[in-house]
Amino acid sequence: MVVATEEMAVYCFDTLIAHYNGDQPPPPAFEDGNHPLFVTWKKATNGSEPRLRGCIGTLEPRQIVSGFKDYALTSALRDRRFSPIQSKELPTLECTVSILTDYETAEDYLDWEVGKHGLIIEFTDPDYNIRRSATYLPEVASHEGWGHVETIDTLMKKAGYNGVITEALRKKIHVTRYQSTLYTMHYGEYLAYVKNNRGGAPAINGVPVVNGFKPGH
C-alpha cells in the first residue's frame, strides 16, 4: 500500500515555490501510482494553532505525481473559501499530503470511527429534490472535537443543505467511509530538507525564502 511520505510534502512545497518563480519544480523523489489524494495548507503564526488556508483533492484515483503537482497549486491558489496564498506567507505554512484508502459502504450514518474514518455523504435534498454530497477527511472530526451526529450535520451543511436536519433525513444518507495515510511538514522542516539534500535554501527570484522573507508578492 502506498503511504504519504516526506517526499510528497516536499514536492508540494517545491511546486508552490516553482509557481512563484514561473518555473517547473524539481523531479519528485517518490514513485508514481494511482490513488485518491488531498493537499492541505495551513498557516501558523506566533505559535498559534494552524489555521486552514486551502484544502482540495480528489476522491477518485489519479496519478499521484501529477495529482500532487496540480492540487498543491489548486489548494494554495484556487480554494474559493480563501484568498490565494502569497509567497510572503511561505515561512508560516505547513503542508499535509493525504492518500485515501480502504473505501467501504457504511451501514448507516453512525457506522464509522472518529479519528479513523473520513466520510463521503450523499443524499437527496428534500426541499429541492436534488442530490447533494460532501466529504470530510479522517482528521477533521477529531480535530474539531465533534461526535458522530455533529460531524454528519455539519457535513450536510457543507454539502449545501440549509433545511431542517431530522433523524429521518440522517437515516436516508448514503455514507462511504475511508481511511488515509498523511504526512505533515512545516516550512521550517522543508527548509532543513532542502539545505540537507540540495545544499542551499529555497529562493524566489534569487531571494532565499527564510524567516523575514518579504518579496512583495
Automatic annotation (TrEMBL):
Pfam name, any one: AMMECR1
Source organism, top-level taxon: Eukaryota
Positions of the AMMECR1 domain: 1-194
PANTHER family found in the cross-reference section: AMME SYNDROME CANDIDATE GENE 1 PROTEIN, AMMECR1 HOMOLOG
Protein's name according to its UniProt entry: AMMECR1 domain-containing protein
